[in-house]
Structure formats: structure tokens, C-alpha cells
Amino acid sequence: MGYTKTIHAVVRVREYLDEMVTGTGDLEWPSSDPRLAYWIREGIAAAGAKHIDLRDYATLSGKYILRSGEGKTIAELRNKLPLDELRARMTVKDAIDGASVIGAAMQYKRPEMFFPNAQLSQDDLQLLHVWTTSVAYFMIVHEPDKPLTSVTLTKRDPGELKWEPEDETQ
Predict the structure, then answer these.
(1) In angstroms, rounded to a whole number, what is the distance separating the alpha carbons of residues 3 and 151?
(2) Is-contact 113 95, C-beta < 8 A?
(3) Of the candidates 4, 134, 19, 155, the residue with the CA atom closest to the CA atom of residue 88
(4) Is the pTM of this model over 0.85?
(5) Domain final position from 45, 77, 109
(6) Segment 133-152 mean pLDDT
């Protein structure tokens, strides 16, 4: 089924299109009708078809991805991160302990690495902290209260998310 190319398709969703033109992030609208995302896409297509004065709307398909959620319609930015930043991040699924996390970090040398399958004990975290400190990485421990947890290593200081071992002299 193709989109209608009439001006009515644009007018029906103009308030959403205006918000998308000025938007700088993801947008979300409450909607009980899952067809809203379709109507917005249809309005964008109609704006690009023949209507020169609606050129701003016609470019929105390159800026946003539209989808329907439960009780809402979501417009997500297509390019959330610059390509250089995307290349700087890496997920390493095969590292499962402290030694393999260190080995992967030494091998890949990315500014940010996430190890979702790492099952790190407190001893592993202590060892990893000593190593990360010596090579200017910061650690983000995802569930520090659990006996085994995953970790992210980053060159950028994560502020209060940064994991530090507890001081046992207190």
C-alpha cells in the first residue's frame, strides 16, 4: 500500500512534523492509534512529492526513524552519535574473567569497551582496577552489589559512575 501524496496527508500531522523539524533529540508522543507513525511517514512522503513550500518536512525521513510502541509513537534520531564515536566503542562478548578482560583491552585498545559476559568477582575487580589505573582507563561496574558482575572500561572519566575499590582501613 503506497502513501497518499495529497496536502491533506501533511496537514493531518503538521504539529508532529513541526516538532520534528525543530527537535534535536528523540521524540515521543502518547497515542492510542498505532497508525500515527504511518501517518507521519505519509506526511513526510507527501511533503517531498510535490509541495515545494514543505521542503523542511521532506528531509525528516533522513533525520528520524518512526515506530509505534505500546500506547505511543516514537521518532528516534537516525544519527545519534558521530561515526568516529561509534567506532571508538566496542562490545567484547568473549571476555569472561579478569584476565580475559585485560587481554581484550590490551588487544583492541578502544576508548570504550563493554564486557557484558564478564563474570567478575571482587578479586577480579581489584586486579582489574590496579591494571586500569596503570593504563589510564576508568571502570564502570554495572552491578557492584552482586557477587559476579559485568564491566565497561573507558578512557573518558565517567564521573560518579567510576568504580573505586572500597577502602578497607575504615
Answers:
(1) 46
(2) no
(3) 155
(4) no
(5) 77
(6) 89
